[in-house]
Amino acid sequence: MSETLIDIVHLTKRFGAFTAVDRVSFSVARGEVLGFLGPNGAGKSTTMRMLAGFVRPSSGHASICGYDVQDEAVKARTCLGYLPEGAPAYRDMSVSDFLRFIGRIRGFDGAELRERVQHAVALTNLQDVSRLLIETLSKGTARRVGLAQALLHDPDVLVLDEPTDGLDPNQKHQIRALIRHMAPRKAIIISTHILEEVDAVCTRAIILAQGQIVADDTPLGLSRLHHTGRLEDVFRSLTVPDAA
Amino acid sequence: MMGSAVIIARREWAAYFASPVAVVFIVIFLAMQGALTFNAGHFFDRDQADLVPFFTYLPWVLLLLIPALTMRQWAEERRGGSIELLLTLPITPWQAVLGKFLAAWAFCTLAILLTFPFVVTVNYLGHPDNGAIAAGYVGAVLLAGGFLSIGAALSAATKNQVIAFVLAVAACFLLLAAGTATVSELLTRLSPDLAHIVRLASVADRFNNFTRGVIAARDVLYFASVIAFFLFLATLVVGEKRAE
């Protein structure tokens, strides 16, 4: 096993009496693409938010590149590219202004800033819309802006909450190819509802149900958990209590 | 450390001018300030070349308009979800709070400076004490900073823009009214000690010292403390309530 870049230990988040994430532990090494699966409300986004340092855990720890996301938040975030759920952005800015802002915060300026923004725009195929205001973009294009923002500083760790949601089939194909291309150099977590995505890009998948990990295996290993061998059936049998 | 705050301030500054907020704010500010100074303040009838009526009404106009500027500071980030993006960048909550404050403060300073025709007018009509006028402007900028920091803290504390506005107006009003003659007389009858303390805490006397041409270190320190205290409070609130 190569170097561990993401490490999560007994991570728990309670909202009042409700436990959204319940003692979740796993780690992700460089070269791995971890698919994060589970029904809505299973705790995928909350786990990712804790990892990004946005939601404070009720208990447990998470670290990125060896930095605790709470105690050494700024250092941890320097190593992290994060696409939040819904790909929020400053919608009153143009794509290139927005990416320049992110680049400056990430410590780039001058020619390097220009290169970084150009590179991120090229990777996510935003050349034609870079002068448009983000609020005028389609859902899929806005999602790619969020992705460009996460990739801009070429981080070791990528945490992407539904990166292909709202994309058309061609764009999905492109983004998956991009993720596969980057995979050997990074540790990547993507959450998704699209099970075929797991086969397409993930080296490993975790299924969450009611805040707990119910499966953690390679796509091949997961498919063996149900006699049909179909991921869809595995997913149902693990996340719907009564399903056979 | 300062760098990220300035980058955020520049983005916020651009956002003011990307929407009608900047123009509406400045036009209404100048119109209200002009109407009150000329009509209610009897600017010409007084036959005195000074800006006393101008500085008498300025705090009350700022009291009404500044909370309108600050109420959206954090509410807007929450509504659009961009708060998750901003607070997972490699910055501290303090840098985000400071950046937003600096942009708002620079903007208010611009609005205040745009009242220069009053200065030109009194200089055309007579021989005013331009030192006192300059000191009054310094006081006005510091007063605006104080009100802005209060508004920032309340904006961070509530998702609701109306509540943020009303509470900020009320808080600024208390701070301003506490130093007026009416309140002072009332409190003196109840308890002279209390009246003295309330007067010390009020912005009214401090601001009036500036308009008389006195820039005293303790008055500057007073405004600096108010700003520092409320920005500190805003930082705590943003850090605690970021994901709510």
Helix content of chain A: 25-40%
Distance between the termini of chain B: 26 Å
The main pleated sheet of chain B reads as: none
**Poorly predicted regions of chain B:** none
The class by helix and strand makeup of chain A works out as alpha/beta
Q: Uncertain segments of chain A of ≥5 residues (pLDDT<50)?
A: none
Please provide the count of β strands of chain A.
10
- The CATH fourth-level homologous superfamily of the largest domain in chain A: P-loop containing nucleotide triphosphate hydrolases
Return the domain count of chain A. 2
Q: Judging from the principal axes of the Cα atoms, what is the shape of chain B?
A: globular
Number of helices of chain A: 9
Strand content of chain A: 25-35%
The number of helical runs of chain B is 13
Q: Structural class of the helices, strands and pairings of chain B?
A: mainly alpha
CATH topology of the largest domain in chain A, by name, is Rossmann fold
Helices, strands, pairings?
The complex is a heterodimer of chains A (244) and B (244).
Chain A: E1 4-15, E2 18-29, E3 33-37, H1 44-51, E4 59-64, E5 67-68, H2 73-78, E6 80-83, H3 95-105, H4 110-123, H5 139-151, E7 157-161, H6 169-182, E8 187-191, H7 195-201, E9 204-209, E10 212-217, H8 219-223, H9 231-239
Parallel strand pairs in A: 3-8, 3-9, 6-7, 7-8
Antiparallel strand pairs in A: 1-2, 1-4, 4-5, 9-10
Chain B: H1 2-18, H2 21-40, H3 52-70, H4 72-80, H5 82-86, H6 93-113, H7 116-125, H8 130-157, H9 161-177, H10 181-190, H11 192-201, H12 203-211, H13 217-241
Helix pairs in contact in B: 1-6, 2-3, 3-8, 3-9, 6-8, 6-13, 8-9, 8-12, 8-13, 10-11
What report would you give on this structure?
The complex is a heterodimer of chains A (244) and B (244). Chain A has helices at 44-51, 73-78, 95-105, 110-123, 139-151, 169-182, 195-201, 219-223, 231-239; strands spanning 4-15, 18-29, 33-37, 59-64, 67-68, 80-83, 157-161, 187-191, 204-209, 212-217. Chain A has 244 residues and is of the alpha/beta class. Chain A has two domains: 1-79 and 157-244, Rossmann fold, CATH 3.40.50.300; 87-154, no CATH class. The two termini of chain A are 35 Å apart. Chain B is mainly alpha-helical and 244 residues long. Chain B has one domain. Chain B is built from 13 helices and no strands. In chain B, helix 8 packs parallel to helix 13.
